[in-house]
């Protein structure tokens, strides 16, 4: 897809993309194993395409995540006026890059002022590659200090990279909850992404990449694999229920099943898609959720989309949810949902983590609003049967989710492909989250029956 159809002037600049590889491992039989993106970044095809990015190939191929990020950030800053688009694979990765700048801007500015890379980057190939870009530039160093030291990070992307025309990153599925924060940092730049891909195979394209993130739909390309669809509204999931691409119905939800050229046969990818319409005769799909991302105490089943709605209550208080995850707590009976929120300030006056001006009763109402968004089954179990205790939000200290990323990477996860799990069950992760809780809040009332007009917004308009 040619971006020049949608954005003018891209040919006059380059892209700042934060891309990462993962170290290779070997199977018991001795075959090399690595993530698909690592294979792509090491391919000849990518080597020829990498000259359109600010990051030198050696920095992208560095397996040390810190050194790779530092080198890519330095090179992006040195070429700030050439940057016309900024991106990562996943939105969470772009936010991590901005947080990295927040944490290390002083050292980065010092490197640029003196034209010498910090010793924190020790990989010889990376240092040599950056040396070809890094030059002594006291004026640029002062710009970085001025923009990063005043405590106001609204629109920081356009202030540091003033010619940026759009942000290129995945904003569907679990990434959708990052859109308000990304808009805060991006100065309301358009957020676009064209490709719908998975580890199993490429899947389709977003033919309207500059649409609002909430309206993103993908057109499946039938030459990429053989696609079948399993209706999600059936009682059983059997091969007999599979629907051909040409036979899906508008408005219905399906789980994607692929048969690939690589040898996978009727493989359930785990993505649940809703048919939103058609491009000519080709169906267009919106990503709804991952089929396994569910919370359940009893007969209830809650997906990630239902946990994202309450954060709107925080906006009038100058705060936003930077990241979240959840789990079911069954240490007491009955069990209940626990949602971990890391907050951030969206105004310069807010306190660390964005929590100083958010009253406890507002966070309590967020618990209730979240319960209001859940299913009828949840309401019956919570209100009628008393089989579920009130939902709980636990606010964690700043940088908690950065520690979660570090924990995952230390156990072999890929920095570039890591996505925060929206439901956690691993004891080490739960212990980390619980060790950083600063406050705990519970739903103050019983949720209204789904579909009634008496919502938390009606009861608490002053919010």
From TrEMBL:
<dbReference type="InterPro" id="IPR004993">
    <property type="entry name" value="GH3"/>
</dbReference>
<dbReference type="InterPro" id="IPR055377">
    <property type="entry name" value="GH3_M"/>
</dbReference>
<dbReference type="Pfam" id="PF23571">
    <property type="entry name" value="GH3_M"/>
</dbReference>
<dbReference type="GO" id="GO:0016881">
    <property type="term" value="F:acid-amino acid ligase activity"/>
</dbReference>
<dbReference type="Pfam" id="PF23572">
    <property type="entry name" value="GH3_C"/>
</dbReference>
<dbReference type="Pfam" id="PF03321">
    <property type="entry name" value="GH3"/>
</dbReference>
<comment type="similarity">
    <text>Belongs to the IAA-amido conjugating enzyme family.</text>
</comment>
<keyword id="KW-0436">Ligase</keyword>
<dbReference type="InterPro" id="IPR055378">
    <property type="entry name" value="GH3_C"/>
</dbReference>
<feature type="domain" description="GH3 middle">
    <location>
        <begin position="218"/>
        <end position="290"/>
    </location>
</feature>
<protein>
    <submittedName>
        <fullName>Indole-3-acetic acid-amido synthetase GH3.8</fullName>
    </submittedName>
</protein>
<feature type="domain" description="GH3 C-terminal">
    <location>
        <begin position="308"/>
        <end position="425"/>
    </location>
</feature>
<dbReference type="GO" id="GO:0005737">
    <property type="term" value="C:cytoplasm"/>
</dbReference>
